[in-house]
Amino acid sequence: MAKELASLMKNELANVEASAILQFDKDISQIPGIVKLTLGEPDFNTPDHVKKAGEASIAADHSHYTQSPGLPALRQAIAAFLANKYRAHYDPETQIITTIGASGAIYASLTAILNPGDEVIVPIPTFPQYLPIIKLNGATPVYIDTSVDNFVLTPEKLAATLAAHRDKVKAIVLNYPTNPTGVTYRRAELEAFVAILRQYDIFVISDEIYSELTYGAPHVSLGELLPDQTLLINGVSKSHAMTGWRIGYVAGPAAVIAKVGLVHQLTATAAATMAQEAALEALQAGPDDGLKMQVEYQSRRDYLVQQLNELGFTTAKPAGAFYVFARIPERFGHDSLAFAYRLAKEAQVAVIPGSAFPAGEGYLRISYAASMTKLETACQRLAAFVAAN
Q1: CATH code for position 179
Q2: Residue 188 and residue 164 share a domain
Q3: Stretch 18-25: mean pLDDT
Q4: Are residues 279 and 296 located together in one domain of the fold?
Q5: Nearest to 231 by CA among 210, 201, 208, 199
Q6: Do 361 and 271 fall into the same domain?
């Protein structure tokens, strides 16, 4: 009977696979003494003042439902954060929803806007979670391969893709700073995109979860440059080392946010109250907490890029987030999964194979959201592995 029922499930699930990132991390985690540079998990602890706010919420028995869009005070804090940091202005009452992490915002946003047969433009390589959600909603991803352009989306390719798919395209997903490459876009580049996007009645899903982790220039939000078409996604996971608290948010035009909020309500009801109150403290009392971490991340980035380049791994210096996307030296071939398994088993260093990302074969994603001590150990082991092979 179980086999018969399994054959009756949602058709779109046949085209969806579990996260290759999480699966690889699980597979190698039991190797004794392994140094893991796999997940986008900050090694910093949540700031003490934020933890105390969460503890105070629990102690005060704030264990009941909040409004589905989130605590009004938190939405006000989100609006102030976006306005002060990125000049993106939203009404906290009608244009912001608090979600279960940025992942919840991605799911609710894509599910609210997509119909079967729609197409969604996705520059690749990118964070792979967008793709199964697109497919589950009966839509089709349309890829723009940026690997031949140093992983940078060009206005020319954007314009050509939109023109070729104008009849079915519903949205474009932009993630910057980008996971896995660390590429980000400055104001002039974004303005060039906006000039093209304004010509089409499409949504822009702008995932800016790494906005506080940019190097060399401040982050510019599409929430400022293209508010009428943008669903801006962000959260406190990376900026405040709060991944486990699961607080994200989405902001956009009021009429659109109302529908996104309905999906959020039907799937999650509301985010946890004590986590929301911790996030409120983070944004109100510690809006620059992420900048303190950013300084350390930049030092780690510089060290890791230099070490990898000396060992023959080709890298572009990331301008944001906390990943290096490194090309495997030619003599090791292009099978990133096989190479990553070898590295884990023989050198006790764990990184994510590029094959976990569309257009990422032949590369490795290496997270420097780990201590400098771990990075130094990993690089020493990688050097020994390369020398021995």
Answers
A1: 3.40.640.10
A2: yes
A3: 87
A4: no
A5: 208
A6: no
Q: How many domains does the chain have?
A: 2
pLDDT category at 3 given cuts 50, 70, 90 is low
**49 CA to centre of own chain:** 25
H-helix or E-strand containing 350? strand 349-350
Peptide bond into 218 cis (omega under 30): no
Q: Are 331 and 370 in contact (CB under 8 A)?
A: no
Report helix, strand and coil shares of the chain as percent, to nearest 5.
45, 15, 40
Q: pLDDT by residue (tens digit) across 56-101? A: 999 999 999 999 999 999 999 999 999 999 999 999 999 999 999 9
Q: Span 357-370, mean pLDDT?
A: 96
The verdict on 31 and 61 lying in the same domain is no
Residues 30 and 70 in one domain: no
Q: Are residues 300 and 278 in the same domain?
A: no
Mean of the per-residue pLDDT values of the chain: 96
Q: Of 81, 62, 25, nearest to 240 (Cα)?
A: 81
Provide the domain limits for residue 35.
Answer: 2-45+289-388
Mean pLDDT, residues 226-248 taken together: 98
Among 252, 285, 318, where does a domain finish? 285
Contact predicate 234/209, CB 8 Å? yes
Residue at token pair 């021995």: 388
Using pLDDT thresholds of 50, 70 and 90, give the confidence band for residue 271. very high
pLDDT band at 157 (very low <50, low <70, confident <90, very high): very high
What are the Cα distances from residue 162, in Å, to 134, 137, 169, 209? 17, 21, 7, 25
- Both tokens of residue 109? 């946003």
